[in-house]
Amino acid sequence: MTIKHPKGIQSNDSVNEPDGINYARRGMTFEKLINESNQYYLAKNIAVIHKKPTPIQVVTVDYPKRSAVKITEAYYKEASTTDYNGVYKGYYIDFEAKATKLKTRFPLNNLQEHQIDHMISCQKQGGIVFLLIYFSTLKECYLMPFSDIKAFWCDNASGQKSIPYTYIKKNCYAVPFKLRPRVDYLAAVNHLMIQLKGVDQ
């Protein structure tokens, strides 16, 4: 099926296998790893977090069999906000997940203005908002708090077009890869929640 993306929607890069973990399905995307982690969190009653569905407009439909319908062409009706939201320890969680093959930086154009606006709105309501960044070549994942995102996007007086990897490694929370959950980002969220307790959002 062909799905056409409007301006502002990008697909995630494929994720390589982190060292020491043998994934049976090759080419698993970062998104799929997060989805599996969310399924684990849900099954263990740890959190309820889901990927947000994006409405599509169906253009072409085929009927290969009388009992089957196949969508062969569609496009997204509107640009999405962020990838995931849900509830953890009584807090609203909202985040975007991005993967990059670059080793030295994360390009800011991977984010869109409407996504930043959505994050600002969630943060103003007391939600825990962040960005998950996966450096696929380095096989490293980090949680970047909204305060850092805002500093580079909204308060960017120098006009930087990317966030240096060195800044991310030093200032953001490392997210461990495990067998279960695959991407244990809630371990990093726990640290972020401790930080936010003493900060007026």
From TrEMBL:
One Pfam family from the UniProt entry?
RecU
What is the required cofactor set for this protein? Mg(2+)
Localization, per the record, is: Cytoplasm
Which biological process annotations from GO are given for this protein?
chromosome segregation; DNA recombination; DNA repair
Q: List the catalysed reactions.
A: Endonucleolytic cleavage at a junction such as a reciprocal single-stranded crossover between two homologous DNA duplexes (Holliday junction)
Primary location recorded for the protein, binned into one broad class: cytoplasm
- State where Mg(2+) binds: 81, 83, 96, 115
In short, the EC number is 3.1.21.10
Q: What Gene Ontology terms describe what this protein does at the molecular function level?
A: crossover junction DNA endonuclease activity; magnesium ion binding; nucleic acid binding
* Bound cofactor: record note: Binds 1 Mg(2+) ion per subunit.
Would I find Membrane among this entry's keywords?
Answer: no
Record-linked NCBIfam families: PRK02234.1-2, PRK02234.1-5, recU
> What's its job?
Endonuclease that resolves Holliday junction intermediates in genetic recombination. Cleaves mobile four-strand junctions by introducing symmetrical nicks in paired strands. Promotes annealing of linear ssDNA with homologous dsDNA. Required for DNA repair, homologous recombination and chromosome segregation.
UniProt name for this protein: Holliday junction resolvase RecU
